[in-house]
Amino acid sequence: MNNTVSTLKAHISLNVKDVSRSIEFYRELFGIEPSKVRQGYAKFDVQNPPLNLALNENSLAGHGTLSHLGIQVASTEDIFETKNRWEESGLTTKDEMQTNCCYALQDKTWTSDPDGNEWEVFVVLEDNLPETNMCCATVDSEIVSERPEDGFNEKRGISEPTPVNINREFQKSCC
Fold first, then answer.
1. 7-159: what CATH class?
2. Distance between CA 113 and CA 90 in Å, rounded?
3. How much is the average pLDDT of 43-60?
């Protein structure tokens, strides 16, 4: 292991009441067009400062409700480097591999701060997937059973992290 993670940019995901109004605001704020727009979702890929901002429409959103925070990295190897560092520090992690999130195929791992704010480290493997009802689902749209004591994935029959959907509260909220 080289212990060096190639970080691309910070990621912030906000729950918003009206994605169209929010697109207008952030278009003006950053002076750029969104890089991706889907029903109830928009993404701004800001170059300066480097930021991946996602907007998720959610009728329950309050004033500036945070969905989650994240760090976009260059590779799945970088995710595992970060995951190992987090676990060595005593943090609990959950993996989502080959997941369809934000209309992109991604690998990621998650942790939460003491107040429950969720942080993800993720890599985009394939971007701009067509609009479907599968946001935040594993590739085969099935959550796989997991035996964490040995890391064995029953569905795949191999020892590796299992996709886990941790978007418990708002299924439409993704990244």
1. alpha beta
2. 12
3. 90
